[in-house]
Structures are given as C-alpha cells and as structure tokens.
Amino acid sequence: GESVGLHLPTLSVQEGDNSIINCAYSNSASDYFIWYKQESGKGPQFIIDIRSNMDKRQGQRVTVLLNKTVKHLSLQIAATQPGDSAVYFCAETSRDNYGQNFVFGPGTRLSVLP
Amino acid sequence: NAGVTQTPKFQVLKTGQSMTLQCAQDMNHEYMSWYRQDPGMGLRLIHYSVGAGITDQGEVPNGYNVSRSTTEDFPLRLLSAAPSQTSVYFCASSQDRISLFFGSGTQLSVL
C-alpha cells in the first residue's frame, strides 16, 4: 500500500549546524512532495514543495531533494536556529486525486541545542 | 486576514454526546478538509470539500459528518462521540490543493 515514512523519529542538532530530515515514500505515482513544520500547540505550516519532475528545490534556508530512484525525500535546513525546533512532516499527493490522497508521515522531531 | 480559524481549542465530551467543530477561512479557498492527528500516526484525512455544496469522504470518515453551505465554513460534526475519537483535529484549506493552510487545531477528549 501507499506509505510515507521517516527514517529518524528524533533529531538533535547544534545551533548553527545544518539539519537533514529524511523521508521515504512508496507511491511512484505521486506528483508533489511537501514538507510541513509543526510547532508545539500549532497547526502544521507549509514549508516547501517539490514536483516529481524536479530533483532539487531551494527556499529560504531550506532545500528539498527528491531521489525518485530510491523513493527518498529530504529536507535540509541551513544554519539551524532555535526557532527551527518543531516536528517536521513530509507528505505526498497527486493531482489525479484532488484532496483525497495527501499521505503524511508520522513526523520527525527536530531539537536545536544551544 | 485571519487565515483558518477553528473553535473550540479544547473540548471534553462524554461518550454518546454530539458536538460540532467549527472551521472558517477568509482566503476564499475552494478546497477545505478535516484531519485528525494521533501520536505516531501522522495526519489522517476525515472529510474534504472541493467547493460549496460538495463534500466527500477521506480515509477515516466513520462517525463524522460534514457540510459545506458556504465557501468560508466547513463544520465537522461528531454524531455520537466515542473514546476512539479522542484526538487533535485540524481543519485545512487550499487554493491549489498542494499547499494546505491549517488552523491551530481542536484538542478533543472523549471520556
């Protein structure tokens, strides 16, 4: 069946270091892959997405990499800051199933150490 | 511009009680949805709507009803609350059906 999962449930990084959060997916028909950030007591917040026809996309301090060969997605955060502490979710979806098949992973908790 | 507003933030129910979780968005998004979030299981889709007057079931619709009489509002009704419905509920809206805008959530406990 379809699944989106994460290799590491928790990740601790030193402030100023780069963070890499990984995600595996199984549905090769997915068109979009999305990363969300969820801070304590808040709803998930959209960070960045990448289409299946791309390998890399950059945003402000974040880069998402997509490796379709091994069905792997990663989120890289440069110069990690205390405000980056949160749970990060990857999700996949397809335009062929509008609204019906957002599949979320269980999340990775990122802790930034001072 | 408030985004997606959910009420209440917290609710405690007894088994068998009914209630409605409110969700409103002011971004004129056609797409709205309800998710529940349980520890270790990520977000699971309950119901969604692609426009006023149109609703459809998601992954876990049993025990929940929705309606979409306006573009702005998408209430979620629990018909007869059960302990298995203890969860955090999120409403989300989207214009492109790719990037979701989430509300701040409703934490529901069913005793």
Question: Can you tell me about this structure?
Answer:
The complex is a heterodimer of chains A (114) and B (111). In chain A, 0% of the residues lie in helices and 52% in strands. Chain A contains no helices and 11 strands. Chain A has strands spanning 4-5, 10-14, 19-25, 32-38, 45-51, 56-58, 62-67, 72-77, 86-93, 103-104, 108-113. In chain A, strands 2, 4, 5, 9, 10 and 11 form a 6-stranded mixed beta sheet that branches. In chain A, strands 1-3-8-7-6 form a 5-stranded antiparallel beta sheet, with no helix packed on it. Chain B contains no helices and 11 strands.
What attributes characterize this protein structure?
heterodimer; A: 114 residues; mainly beta; six-stranded mixed beta sheet; 0% helix; 52% strand; B: 111 residues; four-stranded antiparallel beta sheet
Oligomer: heterodimer
Q: Tell me what portion of residues of chain A adopts beta-strand conformation.
A: over 45%
N- and C-termini, Cα separation of chain A: 41 Å
- Report the structural category of chain B: mainly beta
Average pLDDT of chain A: 87
SSE sequence of chain B, one letter per element: EEEEEEEEEEE
Q: Give the overall shape of chain A, derived from the CA principal axes.
A: globular
How many β-strands of chain A, per DSSP? Answer: 11
- Rg of chain B, rounded, reads 13 Å
Number of helices of chain B: 0
Order of helices and strands of chain A: EEEEEEEEEEE
Using the alpha-carbon principal axes, give the shape of chain B. globular
Gap from first CA to last CA of chain B: 36 Å
